[in-house]
Amino acid sequence: MARRTRSCLLPLGAPRFLVHCVARCTRQLHMLADAGGGAASGGAAGCCEPAGLRKEILLARLEELVGVMAVEVIAFAVMDNHVHLVLRVSRAEAQRWSDEQVLQRWWRLHPLRDGYNRPREAAEEEVASALADAAFLAGCREKLASLSKFMQCFSQHAAERINKLEETGGPVWAGRFKSVLVKDLEQLVATMVYVDLNPFAAGVCETPEDGRHTSLAGRLGRDEPCGAEAADPADPAATRRSGRSGRSADREPGEAATPDGPRPPRRRPSGRWLRPLDESLERQRRRGHRPLADGEAVRAASVGTVAAGLSLRAYLRVLDAVARKLRKGKRRLAAGTAGVFERLGLEADAVAGRVLALAQRDGLLGTQPVAAGPLRRPRRLGQVAAS
């Protein structure tokens, strides 16, 4: 039976939509695990790699793509042999870009190169010629808002880097990525929880918040990039240090090598580039205001967030409840385990205040379009948020 094309499964022409993507390593090999595990891990024996290097490469690539394309990451989990991504694709956002912005973003994604295969600046004649080519710009705009292009850039980059680390060739991913359309808020929350609980359910960590390379770790401020150079790429001091250390033509920007082996690429914590949760109700409550009741006002206050009413406090409580009820055969929290806020040693109000401060500092509130589609807020989620 012929497989159905992705255009039959997803509304690729819609202004925006949400999708859950899964990319698995070939033959279920643990090719994203630390090297040195031989055939079981897919790693090259004796290869000197710092812990978590391969997953750091994937997260750095995600951050780069989010900053260039009209695709946002809502949730992710990087496991040893597969990757989960919950993405928001917005063609409407790409349509608002000017031709100059489209060209700049496209050349950031595919930089021009000189005779030594090094990135170079475009000449004025090249810029003028590209801006005069309407068909070229239309194609670039379309691809910058394409789910398939996003996953291609993500998967291809990962495969090239992993094969280079192992000094070999061949496929890293098992065919095409799988995609499932997220149709409403209930499915969105369920998918986010499922993705964030992947390491816990697999027995990698003792509690959900101990997961290392997940969006939950980023939202809790527990995602600390590896390596001494894993600072904010916009930091001038970090840029100067990188320039002094030198780069070779075959090394990715932001990634350095040491005599002992490769070093993780510089990146920001994932909480800085994930699509934020909605803290508008928490913000009003802390200011002493009555929570909004009008639907339009609620949506306006929640612009740029995952979904109206889905705060970190509500999400953590949903996740904690699900972690206690995972099906047989999967790890789950015992009935006597302390609550998520007690395990974290934090008060719910303190967590909400910290998220608000970070969101306001980074300009993540009220700067982007509303979440995809007419997402309805189920009564169940409202009860959790009020508990």
Automatic annotation (TrEMBL):
Residue intervals of the Transposase IS200-like domain: 14-198
Source organism of this protein record:
Phycisphaera mikurensis (strain NBRC 102666 / KCTC 22515 / FYK2301M01)
Starting at the broadest rank, the lineage of the source organism is: Bacteria, Pseudomonadati, Planctomycetota, Phycisphaerae, Phycisphaerales
InterPro entries according to UniProt: Transposase_17, Transposase_17_sf
User: Bias regions of kind Low complexity — which residues?
Assistant: 228-237
User: Which residue ranges are recorded for the region named Disordered?
Assistant: 204-297
State the protein's name: Transposase IS200-like domain-containing protein
Q: Which GO terms describe its molecular function?
A: DNA binding; transposase activity
Q: Which domain of life is it from?
A: Bacteria
For biological process, the GO terms are: DNA transposition
- List, alphabetically, the PANTHER family matched: TRANSPOSASE IS200-LIKE DOMAIN-CONTAINING PROTEIN (PTHR34322:SF2), TRANSPOSASE, Y1_TNP DOMAIN-CONTAINING (PTHR34322)
